[in-house]
Amino acid sequence: KEVITGTQDWVYEHLGALFWVVELWSPNKEAGIEGYKWIDWYRDHPVEDDLKLLKWSDEQCGGQAHVDWKPFLHPQLGQVEIGGWDKMNYWRNPPPALREREAARFPAWMNQIALSLPKLELLRTEVRALGPDSWRIRMAVANSGYLPAYVTKRALERKVVRGVMFEIHLPPADP
After folding, report:
1. Which whole-number Å values give the CA distances from 97 to 31, 44, 60, 79, 134, in the listed order?
2. Taking 90 as the threshold, does the pLDDT of residue 145 lie above it?
3. Could you tell me if 107 and 113 are in contact, meaning their C-beta atoms sit under 8 angstroms apart?
4. I need a labelling partner for 163 at 20 to 30 A (CA). Which of 21, 31, 36, 60 fits?
5. CB-hemisphere CA count at 13 Å for 41?
6. Cα-based distances in Å from 144 to 18, 61, 126, 141
7. Is residue 31 a contact partner of residue 53, using CB atoms and an 8 Å limit?
8. Is the dihedral angle over the CA atoms 40, 87, 110, 148 positive or is it negative?
9. Can you say whether residue 159 is alpha, beta or left, with left for phi > 0 and alpha for psi between -120 and 50 degrees?
10. What is d(CA 172, CA 168) in angstroms, rounded to the nearest whole number?
């Protein structure tokens, strides 16, 4: 079985950290192509899918997503052909006219992720003077978030988690 992995797998396996790849855009779906596994489709797909994508380029992108190949005299390489798909502006990212629509879906998803993260809450504090320059401060905190403070068991296994730390920053002392 072929397995394709990348940075996100390494980040989880070695650091125990969660990692998301946000793939909001799919020109295939926009062109009406469904029921495919991306990498398999990319390697080999029916010519009818190419025709659907070209139709989508012509009708929805003003023909800008794919430009016809044409001869070009390159100053160093000589005669070449240029053209094809504008992968940065139509494949990897939505066309400029659709970017706002596509990006509008992202904040709700990001908010859902944020709400699941650990959330330390200060439950109570107790401050007691021990002398003119000494104080005892006690605090009680709790994690009210959905995920534990270590986030994943993998992070514990890899020993990359440190305990909860508190820092108190005092203003400069008067001279």
Report:
1. 16, 29, 9, 34, 63
2. yes
3. no
4. 21
5. 13
6. 19, 47, 21, 9
7. yes
8. positive
9. left
10. 12
pTM tops 0.85, yes or no: no
Residues with Cβ < 8 Å from 28, sequence gap 6 or more?
36, 38, 41, 49, 53
| Span between the terminal Cα atoms of the chain, in Å | 71
Residue 71 pairs in a beta bridge with 81
Amino acid at 85: W
pLDDT, one tens digit per residue, over 99-139 is 999 889 889 889 999 999 999 899 999 999 999 989 999 99
**Residue 67 Ramachandran class (φ > 0 left, ψ -120 to 50 alpha, else beta):** beta
C-alpha to C-alpha distance for 117 and 20, rounded to whole angstroms: 14
How many CB atoms lie under 10 A from the CB of residue 36? Answer: 13
- Which residues fall within 8 angstroms of residue 138, CB to CB, at 6 or more apart? 125, 126, 127
Predicted local confidence at residue 4, as pLDDT: 67
Q: Are 101 and 107 in contact (CB under 8 A)?
A: no
CA of 121: how far to CAs of 143, 149, 163, in Å?
6, 12, 15
